[in-house]
Amino acid sequence: MKQLIQSFKTGELGLFDVPAPICQANGALVETTVSLVSAGTEKMLVDFAKKSIL
Fold it and tell me: In angstroms, rounded to a whole number, what is the distance separating the alpha carbons of residues 43 and 23?
């Protein structure tokens, strides 16, 4: 399974192979057919991660 992962420190995006999720007892596994990456939201999270706690 492929997953798009973004580094909070650098903002760099990477495509990684990750294990497929496992359905737990009494759970439901949902298959995503379409997804959208919002550049504005992702940029906001990277900017927030770069800020100091103080």
Answer: 32
